[in-house]
Amino acid sequence: MELDQTQEKRELALLDQINSDPDITQANLAGKLDVAVGTVNWHLKRLIAKGYVKAKRAQRKKLRYIITPEGLALRARLTVNYIENQMRLYSQTRQQVKNLLGEIKKLGYGEVRVEGDSEIADVCRLTCLEQGIDIVDKGSIPILEVQGYTVILNLGQAL
């Protein structure tokens, strides 16, 4: 069964944290990953069962997590997958924004407002600059609204 992107990101983050601190507790891992301790426990059990991580007793109630060579290979694969997914998202967003800017240009506008504060909004701003579209804060102009990973063209006030 293939892991979904959320699980892959969690396991990559988990392996990164273990790599930087093998003595980290499940509670600390949960805090750093912003998930429940039970989620960390589930992932760790899975990684241990698959042979990617070993748990050894460091003290009476304390465990030390060790990433195996297979775990290092998994970490490398997850890192590559993450980078590929981010590059694909970047390319798709740029193409989507280029298409929307083409519509804006056809309507005779040379300015746009970008609403949103995320990496996706940053990609929108960069694409606008590359396409010769000015970004302004006010006016009755088209708006590129960033909603999660989606960019929507709002012409409501512009028309």
Q: What does this entry look like structurally?
A:
It is built from five helices and six strands, in the order H-H-H-E-E-H-E-H-E-E-E. By secondary structure, the chain is α/β, with parallel strands linked by helices. It has a four-stranded mixed beta sheet with strand order 4-3-5-6, with helices on one face. A two-stranded antiparallel sheet has the order 1-2. A hairpin with a 5-residue loop joins strand 1 and strand 2. The relative contact order is 0.10. The model has no long low-confidence stretch (mean pLDDT 91).
Write the layout of secondary structure elements.
Layout: H1 5-20, H2 26-33, H3 37-49, E1 53-57, E2 63-67, H4 69-106, E3 111-115, H5 119-130, E4 134-135, E5 143-147, E6 150-154
Parallel strand pairs: 3-4, 3-5
Antiparallel strand pairs: 1-2, 5-6
Class from helix and strand fractions: alpha/beta
N/C terminus separation? 50 Å
Number of strands: 6
Number of DSSP helical runs? 5
Q: Which ranges are low-confidence, i.e. pLDDT below 50, for 5 or more consecutive residues? A: none
Proportion in β-strands: 15-25%
- Helical residues, percent: 40-55%
Question: Which overall shape is indicated by the principal axes computed on the Cα atoms?
Answer: elongated
**Major sheet, described briefly?**
4 strands, mixed
- H/E series: HHHEEHEHEEE
